[in-house]
From TrEMBL, chain A:
PROSITE patterns: ABC_TRANSPORTER_2. Coiled coil: none annotated. It comes from the Bacteria. GO terms for molecular function: ATP binding; ATP hydrolysis activity. Residues 73-272 form the ABC transporter domain. PANTHER family: ABC TRANSPORT SYSTEM ATP-BINDING PROTEIN, ATP-BINDING CASSETTE, SUB-FAMILY H, MEMBER 1. It comes from Micromonospora zingiberis. This is ABC transporter ATP-binding protein. InterPro entries: AAA+_ATPase, ABC_transporter-like_ATP-bd, P-loop_NTPase. CDD domains: ABC_DR_subfamily_A. The keyword ATP-binding applies.
TrEMBL record, chain B:
Gene3D superfamilies: Winged helix-like DNA-binding domain superfamily/Winged helix DNA-binding domain. Signal peptide: none annotated. It comes from the Bacteria. It holds the Pfam family PadR. This is PadR family transcriptional regulator. It comes from Micromonospora zingiberis. InterPro entries: Metal_resp_DNA-bind_regulator, Tscrpt_reg_PadR_N, WH-like_DNA-bd_sf, WH_DNA-bd_sf. Residues 18-89 form the Transcription regulator PadR N-terminal domain.
From TrEMBL, chain C:
It is found in: Membrane. GO terms for molecular function: ABC-type transporter activity. GO terms for cellular component: membrane. This is ABC-2 type transporter transmembrane domain-containing protein. Residues 49-154 form the ABC-2 type transporter transmembrane domain. It holds the Pfam family ABC2_membrane_3. The keyword Transport does not apply.
Length: 272, 112, 230
C-alpha cells in the first residue's frame, strides 16, 4: 500500500466512524502534508489507518449518526421457485432511509434473485415488496452498452428523468469522480477495463438520485483503492438519507452495514 | 533507552512541549516534530503528534488555520491562544514542580 | 419526446460503431444483387430488396439483444416501455433509410425503364417491416446466434417460395416483392396496392407484437408497490 492508498483508506475509515466530514478532510490533508514533507512510510509514521482513525476519533469525537429515517424498502415473505428448487423461502428485509443492508449467503442461494425481485425485474412466487421513492439498480454485469461512450450512458440515463445533455454529462462525470474515475475519455464501454466498466455501471445507478439503491456485487474487478472509494461513496449516500442494499459475498464489509440478510438456507430473515 | 517507557513519559508531557514550542510563534506539524527531535526528545511520529494537536485545538488552547507557506504546500499552522498561554504557564509550573523532586531522587539513585 | 429521441440516437450511435457488422450487412444485399445482375434485372432487384431486409432486421436483432440487460435499468431510470421500443425502432428505421439510399441510386444508375418510385417504395416497405421484425426475434430469442439463424431461415424461405403461392403471403417481406414486380415488370396497379396493404398490415402487426412483448417484459410487476416518499 503506498502513501496515497494509505490516505484513501484512512479517509474512508474516518468517514465510516462518522467523523464530521470537514474535520476528516482537514486531518487527512494534514497527514498528507506531513508525509509529503517528511517522506517515510505512513505505516511507521501513523500506523495502520484503522488504528490511527480510532485515535483521531478519541481526539476529536464524532458527529452523532443520523437516526435511521422512514422505511424505504420493505420486502416480505419473498418466495421464489425455479422448477422444483425453492431458491428463496419467506425472505424478508426492511431498510430505512440512511441505512445500508447487506444481502449475504453462499453462491446460488438466491441473492441476485432477491435483489431483482426487489427491483421489480423478476416476479416472486409469493411475497410483496414496497418501495418509497425512486429505485436505482446496478446489475452484476451487462448493465452498460458496449458501443457507447461513458458520456453517452450518462445522457441516456439522464434523459429518463428529463435531464438535458450537458447537465447529465456533468452529473455523470461528477458521480464518476466520487469513485475515483475520470470519465472524460473517448473510450467505448467495451474497451474499459472490468473495474472501470463496473464504475460506469455504478455511476449509472446513482445518477438518477435514487432513494433506494440496489447493488449486485458492485465491486467486481476493483482494486483496493476503488473498493475503498466505493464504500466511501456508499456511506456518503447513506448519510444523505438513501436506503442501500448491497449483495455481497465478502464478509469483511459487514461491520460497515446496518442490516444483514443472510440467505443461506435456514437463516433467512433480516436482522440488525 | 526503553522506547516504551519514553513513550509513556511523552504521553504525559507532549502537549506541554507543543504549547511551549508555540510560545514564540506559530508552527505546523512537521516543523514541530523536527523541533522536538532536534531538542533531543527523540523522533516523534505523526501518529503521536497530530492527535495531541487536535486535542489542543478542540479544547481551545491552540487555533489553527491552513495557509500557503512561503514556499511549498499549504500547511496547517497552529497558534497559541490566551487560554493556551495560561495552560502552558499552569501546566509548565506543575511539571517543573514534579520533575525537580523526581530528578533529585533519581539522581541520587543513579549516582549512588 | 426527449426520451424517445435519445433512445433512437443512441441506437444509431451504437450501430454506427459496429463498423464490421455494418459492412458485412451491406455486403449481403450487394452480393445478392451482383449475382443476379447478369440474368435478369427483376431478379437482381428482388435479391437486393431481400438483402436490405436481411441487413436491417439483423441490425435490429443485434441492437435488441445488446440492450437486454440495459433496458430494465433504463425502465427504472424513468423510461416507459414505449420509449424504449419505439425509440429503438426509430433509430433502426433511420439506419435502414440510410442503407437504402445508395442501393436505390445503384438501381437508378444501373437499370433503365423501371418505375423508380416503386423501387423506393419497395425499399421503404423492407425497412418498415425489417426493424420491428428483427426486434421481435431479438426480444423472443435470448441469443444472437439463434436469432440470426431464424432470420436466415425466413430470408431463404422468402427467396425460394413461389410468390404466387398462398403461403408466400404469410412471409413478412412479401410486400416488397409485389411492389418490385410492379416497378420492374410494369404490371397493373393491383401489385402495388396489394404490396402496400401487406406492408402496412405486417408493420402494424409487428409493432403491436413488439409492444406486447416489451410491455410484458418491462411491465410493472404486481408484487412491487410504490409508496409515497415520506
Amino acid at each position: 500500500m503506498n502513501a496515497d492508498e494509505w490516505l484513501r483508506v484512512f479517509a474512508a475509515e474516518l468517514h465510516q466512524r462518522r467523523v464530521a466530514a470537514d474535520a476528516a478532510r482537514h486531518v487527512v490533508a494534514e497527514a498528507a502534508t506531513h508525509l509529503r514533507e517528511g517522506g517515510g512510510d505512513p505505516w511507521l509514521v501513523f500506523g495502520p489507518p484503522q488504528a490511527y482513525a480510532a485515535t483521531i476519533v478519541e481526539s476529536i469525537g464524532t458527529v452523532p449518526g443520523p437516526r435511521p429515517g422512514p422505511v424505504r424498502l420493505d420486502a416480505r415473505g419473498i418466495t421464489k421457485r425455479y422448477g422444483r428448487r425453492t431458491v428463496l423461502r419467506d425472505a424478508a428485509l426492511t431498510v430505512r432511509a440512511g441505512q445500508i443492508a447487506a444481502v449475504v449467503g453462499a453462491n446460488g442461494c438466491g441473492k441476485s434473485t432477491f435483489l431483482r425481485i426487489c427491483a421489480g425485474l423478476v416476479s416472486p412466487d409469493a411475497g410483496e415488496v414496497t418501495v418509497s421513492g425512486r429505485l436505482g439498480f446496478c446489475p452484476q454485469q451487462g448493465g452498460t452498452a458496449d458501443f457507447l461512450l461513458p458520456d453517452e450512458h450518462f445522457v441516456l440515463v439522464g434523459a429518463g428523468q428529463g435531464v438535458a445533455r450537458e447537465p447529465a454529462r456533468r452529473a455523470g462525470r461528477a458521480a464518476a469522480r466520487q469513485l475515483g474515475w475520470d470519465a472524460q475519455g473517448d473510450v467505448l464501454a467495451r474497451h474499459l477495463s472490468g473495474g472501470t466498466r463496473q464504475k460506469l455501471n455504478l455511476t449509472m445507478s446513482t445518477l438518477a438520485e435514487p432513494d433506494v439503491l440496489l447493488l449486485d456485487e458492485p465491486y467486481q474487478g476493483f482494486d483496493q483503492g476503488s473498493y475503498v472509494n466505493l464504500w466511501d461513496q456508499l456511506i456518503r449516500l447513506r448519510d444523505a438519507g438513501r436506503a442501500i442494499v448491497v449483495v455481497t459475498h465478502l464478509l469483511n464489509q459487514l461491520d460497515r452495514v446496518d442490516v444483514v440478510l443472510d440467505l443461506t438456507p435456514a437463516h433467512q430473515g433480516g436482522h440488525s | 533507552m526503553d522506547a516504551d517507557r519514553r513513550g509513556q513519559w511523552l504521553r504525559g508531557v507532549l502537549d506541554l512541549c507543543v504549547l511551549a514550542l508555540l510560545r514564540d510563534g506559530e508552527s505546523y506539524g512537521y516543523e514541530l516534530a523536527q523541533a522536538l527531535d532536534v531538542a533531543g526528545v527523540g523522533p516523534i511520529q505523526g501518529g503521536t503528534l497530530y492527535p495531541v494537536l487536535l486535542r489542543l485545538q478542540r479544547t481551545g488552547l491552540v487555533t489553527a488555520q491552513w495557509r500557503e507557506g512561503g514556499s511549498g504546500p499549504a500547511r496547517k499552522y497552529y497558534q497559541l491562544t490566551d487560554d493556551g498561554r495560561a495552560a502552558l504557564h499552569h501546566g509548565g509550573t506543575a511539571w517543573l514542580a514534579f520533575v525537580a523532586p523526581v530528578t533529585d531522587i533519581v539522581t541520587k539513585g543513579v549516582d549512588g | 419526446m426527449r426520451r424517445l429521441v435519445t433512445v433512437a440516437e443512441m441506437t444509431l450511435r451504437e450501430l454506427a460503431r459496429r463498423r464490421g457488422v455494418l459492412l458485412l450487412l451491406l455486403l449481403m444485399p450487394l452480393v445478392f444483387w451482383m449475382i443476379r445482375r447478369d440474368t435478369y434485372v427483376g431478379q437482381s432487384i428482388r435479391a437486393l430488396l431481400l438483402g436490405i431486409s436481411w441487413a436491417v432486421s439483423t441490425a435490429a436483432l443485434f441492437a435488441t439483444s445488446a440492450a437486454r440487460e440495459l433496458e430494465p435499468r433504463l425502465r427504472l431510470a424513468g423510461y416507459r416501455p414505449h420509449h424504449l421500443y419505439l425509440g429503438r425502432m426509430l433509430g433502426l428505421w433511420a439506419l435502414g433509410l440510410a442503407v437504402s439510399v445508395p442501393f436505390f441510386l445503384l438501381t437508378v444508375f444501373d437499370a433503365a425503364n423501371l418505375r423508380y418510385a416503386g423501387i423506393a417504395v419497395a425499399m421503404l416497405c423492407c425497412v418498415a417491416v425489417a426493424a420491428p421484425f428483427g426486434m421481435l426475434i431479438g426480444a423472443l430469442l435470448p441469443r444472437e446466434l439463434e436469432g440470426t439463424l431464424l432470420l436466415l431461415t425466413v430470408v431463404a424461405m422468402q427467396m425460394l417460395l413461389d410468390p404466387a403461392s398462398p403461403g408466400a403471403r404469410l412471409t413478412p417481406f412479401w410486400s416488397s416483392r409485389e411492389i418490385a414486380t410492379w416497378a420492374v415488370d410494369h404490371t397493373d396497379g393491383g401489385y402495388l396496392n396489394r404490396g402496400l396493404l401487406h406492408a402496412t398490415l405486417v408493420t402494424v402487426l409487428l409493432i403491436v407484437t413488439v409492444a406486447g412483448v416489451f410491455g410484458v417484459r418491462l411491465r410493472r410487476r404486481r408484487h412491487l408497490h410504490h409508496a409515497p416518499l415520506t
